[in-house]
Amino acid sequence: MELQVLAKKENPLLNRVEVTFKAVHKAEGTPTRDAIRSELAKQLKAAKDAVVVDRSESSFGRFETFGYAKVYKSKEEALSIERSHILVRNKLKEAEVKEKKEGEKPAKEAKPAAKPEPKAEAAKPEAKPEHKAEPKAEHKEEKPAAKEEKKPAEKHEEKKEGKPEPKKKEGK
């Protein structure tokens, strides 16, 4: 992999250097974040822990990856400024696991409990067809109600037949 720095910008407010790079990787796959971080650290003479790759994008059919990285003065500054999900992607921080409440059961325990339930459901299929027959009967009752709504239209047709409507004058 060959890494070229396309743009380099100092950001004194956040104590970092922002870098836009291009990685050329012929006869190889797309480089990992870890490989890009180590190459940038070599070229910019910084510690690998202080380099954070924000994004890297490969183009289809080309052997090039363009990206954006930030080089901090130290790892502590990177940890204090960077977003946590970016730090997790760069393996500078471990992913946080949400703590479970005391009353909740872990998801792994719930799965084995679900396996015995299909045996209980084997007796239920007899009850299900009865349950399905009821909604169909209710649904049939609704259809005549919809036909009743059309009756006022029939009355309107009767009025047309009984009284001739005055003819409207046509325009141009």
Account of the 3D structure:
- Helices cover 42% and strands 21% of the residues.
- The chain is α+β, with helices and mostly antiparallel strands.
- It has a domain at 2-89: RRM (RNA recognition motif) domain (Alpha-Beta Plaits), CATH 3.30.70.330.
- Strands 1-2-4-3 form a 4-stranded antiparallel β-sheet.
- The longest helix is centred in the last third of the chain and has 23 residues, at 127-149.
- The model has no long low-confidence stretch (mean pLDDT 78).
Quick structural overview:
The protein is an alpha+beta fold and 172 residues long.
For the largest sheet, list the strands in their spatial order.
1-2-4-3
Q: At the third CATH level, what is the topology name of the domain at 2-89? A: Alpha-Beta Plaits
How many strand elements?
Answer: 4
Total DSSP helices: 7
Shape: elongated
Q: What class would the helix/strand composition place it in? A: alpha+beta
Mean pLDDT across residues: 78
CATH superfamily of the domain at 2-89: RRM (RNA recognition motif) domain
Uncertain runs? none
Largest sheet entry: 4 strands, antiparallel
